[in-house]
């Protein structure tokens, strides 16, 4: 009974429940639990910034300290979402600045963050501690200077993969000399001349709690030794450029500096690597759990040597220079490997430049019993290999395969790869994320709809034959939250027939498919809780026949209604879409 | 039953089915009737009409870049029979669909332009951030002359060749199907949020100027998203009044920053040379663009001035 426990007790119990899903479940038990829960929720997660308005969030959760927001759809990473589409954070900062002086953490992904927003954050939140900007853009070093100057309690400043306008190298000097609370700094995305080395060294020197430091490419190799000596307590470190003329004194400095870091678990950076300097990190390799060599243009023999020194590796990002032979060594050396990402070194080349094939992936799935997450770029694949992989490694939770040439068939049988991916979804019962590639018919979607019951995110490109494919996915995948599709022959029928399903998902992206403008309008009219956005840079969709397919379509559920910050090339279909545009 | 007629089929076979498809799809591209939609909304899928569709074969099959092996150009080649059947209205919508599915960013005017049909934006799915880093690495390797990264490799000549191939494929897409995009930022004075434009999707200054004019010369400015600055609405209105950016007849002038960091007027060097040196674009007020003469011997003057811009 709701009366059996006083509120404070329930609140205390709820404080142990951190995950959003669980919190949401708690809030649905009964009215009083809803009330208690909303007052004590400290971390809010909004997976789509347009699904809800800032005011609604603030009204429901009056005392949160931390917010995470996501903006643009995932395909924005590949330039499929035109600039200016949206995802502006300023309205959120503005509302929160008014309501919450005690906000501590802001985490943003794929949002447009202006200097004005950063300045407002710096001014409004006195106890601000954590700023994580992931794949964001729209700000410059001026905004960073404002944060540095005003946020006296800042612990974390992480700018992973952002696009920053470089205006001044001196923003780092805006951290006052009295400021010592930095724990994590990631500036790996900054272009050249955006960091002053002396300011950096002084900052690192006085922040004795610094655990994570990811430098940018402009930091030369000979500066790293000094920085590391100032911060031997580092757990995660990203180098700058890893190249220099080979000199014994520089080398021994570097090796000594690395040896002094007894806590290092994660390394990254390694732009422009000179192999002669790699052994400098051998002293720390045995403790490494995470290694990002995805910018390191070193060849297989050097990669093999390096990887053989890291028996405790759990996460490896690497270029396809590692080749099948390197992956075989990885499979035998790194039995704790959980995540592997292999990126292409020459994605636009007509011919393969390295010997990396499906065999490498087979080897790793055979040899690494804990492997659960894979992102693999290659040029050929076979159903046989995929079935082997699925059978060997049923514990995959994330499987993303990109065969570089669209619609590439099984290279052995010339058949579509339906059966291979079918095996993946059949054997890997906990699969949450899947990206397809290669030659695929509607059959693969039938497999996915039948077996992939825990699948939450599906990415599809250049696949399928008909609406039946889309229908299989929408009607069969019970846990589906995000679906993104490009260049597939999916049209109106499956979409309209599964309209209700779309309200159970976060979002659907379809570009270069066959969904007509008429269908978009109909969907918008019938489903008031969906925002149906037509994105078309050719001009207004009503200037073409109604049965003409739209260029891009982004559908997401929302309780905030259509947004008001759309650029000229985005139209929302709503109840009146028949009447106005 | 074998799946779709993919790109692996031989030319004549797929040509026939493509034409069938275009006819089929134009017949069937009407609005689905209400009863089907009610079916979906009621979440009852028994006896669903979808199954009939699949037996029809390639209903609503989209034409992708692979279906048009030759360039869709003004001078249509005989081999691409699909593009030549542009007489019927349904086919022309299919044609524009094909252009759409090619996926490049285009303005309305350039749909029929002689862009390569097999240009696919955003594939393979590599984040722009990573692509830029890799391009910079390729460039660095070129300028540093394959330094000690290559030294340890046994067969040095073959490595050098590999490296060259890799670099040239970044600069001039080796694979006709997957063209590298070259996105550069465009900023307009007074508007804080810039846009990005794919330089490789244009072949000339005129096309680029047209795209930019279309991007920024909208007659219906929207509510400013990033803040409430009347200046910006005024900006938009101003832009609608000005005309061409290239011929000096507008209030605005198109400039670019080159690899050396100098700001120059756009339009003086050959297009290809421009492509290889442009880092970003800026549309600035004509009044502020004094001294930006694009003569090479005036570079020093520009370096001084660019500090004040």
TrEMBL record, chain A:
GO biological-process terms attached to the record: auxin-activated signaling pathway; pollen maturation; SCF-dependent proteasomal ubiquitin-dependent protein catabolic process
GO MF annotations, alphabetized: auxin binding
Pfam families xref list: F-box_5 (PF18511), LRR_6 (PF13516), Transp_inhibit (PF18791)
CDD domains recorded: F-box_AtTIR1-like
Entry keyword set: Auxin signaling pathway, Developmental protein, Nucleus, Ubl conjugation pathway
InterPro entries, A to Z: COI1_F-box, F-box-like_dom_sf, F-box_dom, Leu-rich_rpt, Leu-rich_rpt_Cys-con_subtyp, LRR_dom_sf, Transp_inhibit
Localisation per UniProt entry: Nucleus
Positions of the F-box domain: 5-46
Assigned GO CC terms: nucleus; SCF ubiquitin ligase complex
Pathway, per record: Protein modification; protein ubiquitination
Listed PANTHER family: F-BOX/TPR REPEAT PROTEIN POF3, PROTEIN TRANSPORT INHIBITOR RESPONSE 1
Name assigned to this protein: F-box domain-containing protein
Organism: Gossypium gossypioides (Mexican cotton)
From TrEMBL, chain B:
Compartments where located: Nucleus
GO cellular component, as recorded: nucleus
Biased composition (Low complexity): 73-96
Predominant place of localization: nucleus
One of the Pfam families matching this protein, by short name: AUX_IAA
Disordered: annotated segments: 1-36, 71-101
Claim: Repeat is one of the keywords in the record: no
Signal peptide residues on this chain, from the entry's feature table: none
GO biological process, alphabetically ordered: auxin-activated signaling pathway; regulation of DNA-templated transcription
PROSITE patterns: PB1 (PS51745)
InterPro entries noted in UniProt: AUX/IAA_dom, AUX_IAA, PB1-like
Keywords: Auxin signaling pathway, Nucleus, Repressor, Transcription, Transcription regulation
Domain PB1 intervals: 181-288
Similarity comment: Belongs to the Aux/IAA family.
Subunit structure: Homodimers and heterodimers.
Function: Aux/IAA proteins are short-lived transcriptional factors that function as repressors of early auxin response genes at low auxin concentrations.
Protein name: Auxin-responsive protein
